[in-house]
Amino acid sequence: MTCAQLGGACDVIFTAETFDEIGELSKAHGAEMMQKGDPAHLQAMQAMMDLMQDPEAMGKWFEDKRTEFDALPDDV
Ligand SMILES: [Zn+2]
Q1: Domain total for the chain?
Q2: Residue 61 falls within a domain, yes or no?
Q3: Does residue 32 form part of some domain?
Q4: Which residues surround ligand 1, an ion (CB under 5 A)?
Q5: Residue 33 Cα, ligand 1 centroid: separation in angstroms?
Q6: Residue (of 55, 61, 74) closest to 6 by Cα position
Q7: In terms of pTM, does the model score above 0.90?
Q8: Which residues contact 28 (CB under 8 A, 6 or more apart)?
Q9: How many percent of the chain have pLDDT more than 70?
Q10: 7, 9, 5, 74: which is closest to 41 by C-alpha?
Q11: 74 pLDDT tier (thresholds 50, 70, 90)
């Protein structure tokens, strides 16, 4: 899945066996881009922060992404 698909702001592709693993990769990448002060990622992170204010919306977003991840072919 790409950074953008996971709530980020670029087309960097993450590959992982599990959704939890890809979540960690995406989080680490987001933190790195934030440290570099990348405006697009700062904005994306802010949007995620806003989403986290609403646990129900956050839970739904998370489930949607997990479903999306599970639907991907294993060799991608
Ligand atoms: Zn990114």
Answers
A1: 1
A2: yes
A3: yes
A4: 3, 8, 10, 12
A5: 7
A6: 61
A7: no
A8: none
A9: 97
A10: 9
A11: confident
For residue 57, the enclosing domain spans 4-71
Quote the ligand 1 centre to 55 CA distance (angstroms).
24
Residue 76 lies in a domain: no
pLDDT tens string 18-40: 999 999 999 999 999 999 999 99
Q: What type of residue sits at position 63?
A: E
Query: How far, in Å, is the centroid of ligand 1 from the Cα of 68?
Result: 18
Angle between helix 55-71 and 19-35 (nearest 10): 110
Q: With contact defined as beta carbons under 8 Å apart, do 1 and 51 qualify?
A: no
41-54 mean pLDDT: 95
